[in-house]
């Protein structure tokens, strides 16, 4: 049975869906109504239950309060294509407060020419925050995209919350400065 819950954070309402105590979807802060629409669109038989995964719920609140947290929670990625699962698992290894590039993740998955496939995996990440796609940048130091309610602005806010220097970070185009990449392999 699929269950969902809302979490009140200082940045707004965060939502998530779990199946058998494994996360299957997360929704970055936005309106409760918007999250509910997204959940109902994707999950047919889902019930609201705010009592499950309490440790995860506390970690989300702590994260948005600016505390350094790691999300050690089981996830269900089995319905995704195999390479996308591999990319998302590699992304989970990028530590709090660091960044990596799409190319770094491609190399970490032993497929160095797959930067575009990595980008597609990030754009279709069903578990933002838990799979920290906001930490993935372009190789030239630009921010790249972000599929969230607030777009790139939300990505920059999350990076800043983690202590990553975002002032002067370019949103598009080429840059001579390179991003310090975390070891993801």
What topology does this entry show?
Blueprint (H helix, E strand, L loop, with lengths): L1 E8 L2 E8 L2 E9 L1 H11 L3 E3 L5 H11 L17 H10 L8 E2 H7 L6 H9 L12 E2 L14 H10 L24
Helix pairs in contact: 3-5, 4-5
Describe this structure in words.
It is a single chain. A 4-stranded mixed sheet has the order 3-2-1-4. It has helices at 32-42, 54-64, 82-91, 102-108, 115-123, 152-161, and strands at residues 2-9, 12-19, 22-30, 46-48, 100-101, 136-137. Mean pLDDT is 90; it is low at 173-183. The chain has 6 helices and 6 strands, in the order E-E-E-H-E-H-H-E-H-H-E-H. The protein is globular. Helix 3 packs across helix 5 and helix 4 packs across helix 5. It folds into 2 domains: 2-64; 82-161, Orthogonal Bundle (Arc Repressor Mutant, subunit A), CATH 1.10.10.10. A hairpin with a 2-residue loop joins strand 2 and strand 3 (22-30). The protein has 185 residues and is an alpha/beta fold.
The SS-based structural class is alpha/beta
Distance between the termini: 34 Å
- Helix fraction, binned, reads 25-40%
Average pLDDT reading? 90
Q: What's the story with the biggest beta sheet?
A: 4 strands, mixed
Text of the CATH class of the largest domain: Mainly Alpha
Pick out the low-confidence regions. Answer: 173-183
Strand percentage = 15-25%
